[in-house]
């Protein structure tokens, strides 16, 4: 007898400001579901994603979450990138005892028993990036980004570390989502004229393209500092002209250029589905990994209930593209590696530093003082 499929919700924007980044998240979902279903599914059950487009609007994420939980009767949702959308969705998921797989890097300082956090926390990204920059003598920063909770919280943490460690920030600049591209030239110019050692960017989505292009256009008249980012990946670089892509840093838990066999297979799978000129980013890899984590949990779960799925997830450990991942059961956050890459003109990253071991999440930065130790990078 044919088993009923396992249906779950997907809430990633395919239009609006966050379309570039969240389409990359959606690609990971589609890739993993196709792979699992082609292999026969999970205990002979196919995965059935119910995909909705919130159009980069926080209130629409909330409305569609209710729709998925109550009308479509799912209890698992993969979705959200910005913290503003996650914050709108979270109380609804908790109220109806659903499970939210949240795949994005974020600002930390949150825990919910109903959320599986797949992206990096501040200790898994900010600290290694600042230590790397300090090891290169880059201690004077411009802090710039989209006017979001993520950017403001990240820059608050960065400012604390810089101040306590002999570094400095010369300016902070925040730009509302949807700001016209022409306004970014003045922002880029102001950043360059502050003469920082480094520009720390927390722009997201389509704002990355606007800033990097305007920044690159000033190269004929100004000496440009390097940009270091927590959010610029292969997905965003692909939207840029070639002359705007190269020479910038990103801290991440994954780059498509990694050479391990599992990743090579993953990249080939990605290119066969989405185009040979494309490169997967951490946004795609994280949702791909999370679908496989759910798949593994469902194999051993006593039922499809949220309680049983969450219980099974706590013991899942998988080899995935880029290495092994597992959950920290105390925080529901993912144990990840730390990597720093430098972008090239093709929109890929050369890995310039990697952590020797995986790093446990510390979403509240409880285990860290605010001193940057540059010699840890050597």
From TrEMBL:
Domain of life: Bacteria
InterPro entries for this protein: AmiC_PBP1, Peripla_BP_I
Pfam families according to UniProt: Peripla_BP_5 (PF13433)
GO molecular function term, any single one: amide binding
The protein's name in its UniProt record: Transporter substrate-binding protein
Organism: Sneathiella litorea
Phylogenetic classification of the source organism: Bacteria, Pseudomonadati, Pseudomonadota, Alphaproteobacteria, Sneathiellales
